[in-house]
Design goal:
- By secondary structure, the protein is an alpha/beta fold.
- It is built from 13 helices and 15 strands.
- A six-stranded mixed sheet has the order 8-7-9-10-11-15.
- It is globular, with a radius of gyration of 24 Å.
Length: 371
């Protein structure tokens, strides 16, 4: 990456903020798989927007969703799927897609008795055991001392962690827009590598300083106030109405921090006259058990997260729902890879899973949260 400038600036309380100006353009994920909603940047990634194109009744669509989840192999479901495939008005593309799905399901069904060994963290023992009873596969569980966080962030079976997939989704949504992007983060590691897909113009690292001072300094509200004071002294005794101006080169703010940080910073930026900027957030803010009142802080913020999470606001208060979704998807991937299926797409809990030779890419939805 061609780094134009890389330097550090001082903020109040002697806190350091990392400011990175990145001059290159990175390869962005194509947006052809996503159906854009009108008048905003939100979109849903689902079976209907990515895989199938014909018109289906609600019951037909729900059946196709269930079958693509690879968790249902009942004869009744196969019979219903056959009825859909036999429709005269079905496009050739959809007919071929559903026939391939049917063949994959039959292949896996014939091998459901094969044992699939899984070693999982003790910390997630209950989640794995509960998932075993929800899935049709013949899992054989054992447990070790691997930390739950390490497992949930690992690249085994998933090409990226859910965190990075969330950031890639934001990058994809902005790939066709010519706007300056600013990342606000408390991530302690290599920020340049972490945000390569987003290709930001600026990266500011928050280190627990005063949120209002942090936001005001980045937005240069402090400088605007100082300029006004100089003018006011020269204009005495004239009364001048004044609203501070924020810097013009900030257009899109991407927050990648945990909930405790974001619930301080987002209101601080909005309070400091940045209401008209576009706000995005990675999934990190949703990992905590939020209170209903917390949603007010995120009003108008675009979240990149699993669609089931965005469609049901009550799940925003349940961290275990997200962990359970990751574990369930991991187990289904493990089973399908073990059973050597030719399956390419899974309708997962945490997103659409596009299977490669050794790992699955995850496509997430993007949605604006309304309190």
């Amino acid at each position: 990456m061609d780094l134009k400038k890389y330097h550090t600036i001082k903020i109040t309380l002697n806190a350091l903020i990392l400011l990175v100006l990145i001059g290159c353009s990175s390869n962005q994920l194509k947006n052809t798989q996503a159906r854009q909603a009108q008048n905003n940047d939100s979109y849903n990634v689902d079976i209907g927007s990515v895989i199938i194109s014909s018109k289906y009744s609600e019951s037909e669509y729900r059946l196709i969703e269930r079958m693509f989840a690879f968790r249902s192999f009942s004869e009744e479901n196969f019979n219903e799927l056959d009825k859909i495939i036999d429709r005269n008005d079905l496009s050739n593309k959809d007919k071929s897609t559903l026939n391939s799905l049917r063949n994959d399901l039959l292949q896996i069904k014939s091998n459901l008795n094969r044992k699939i060994a899984i070693t999982a963290p003790n910390e997630l023992k209950q989640t794995f055991i509960e998932s075993v009873f929800k899935l049709p596969y013949n899992f054989e569980l054992s447990f070790n001392d691997t930390q739950a966080v390490q497992f949930l962030r690992s690249n085994e079976l998933f090409c990226n962690s859910l965190e990075l997939d969330s950031l890639k989704t934001i990058a994809k949504s902005r790939s066709s827009e010519d706007q300056n992007i600013t990342v606000i983060t408390n991530f302690p590691g290599d920020v340049i590598t972490r945000y390569l897909d987003i290709n930001p113009n600026y990266i500011f690292v928050y280190e627990n300083q005063d949120p209002q001072e942090f936001a005001a300094s980045i937005l240069e509200v402090t400088k605007s106030n100082e300029r006004f004071k100089k003018i006011e002294r020269l204009a005495v005794p004239i009364n001048i109405e004044f609203t501070p101006r924020i810097r013009k080169d900030l257009e899109v703010l991407v927050f990648d921090a945990d909930h405790e940080v974001q619930k301080k910073l987002i209101p601080a930026f909005k309070y400091n006259y940045a209401n008209k900027l576009l706000y995005y957030s990675s999934i990190n803010a949703l990992k905590s058990n939020l209170n209903k009142g917390d949603l007010i802080d995120y009003e108008g913020v675009n979240f990149a997260a699993p669609q089931f999470y965005l469609q049901d606001p009550t799940l925003l208060y349940k961290e275990e729902a997200l962990i359970s979704g990751i574990v369930m998807d991991w187990m289904v991937l493990k089973a399908i890879y073990e059973l050597n299926s030719s399956t390419k797409i899974i309708n997962g809990n945490t997103g659409l899973l596009m299977m490669g030779n050794t790992c699955a890419k995850r496509l997430l939805s993007l949605s604006k949260l309304e309190a």
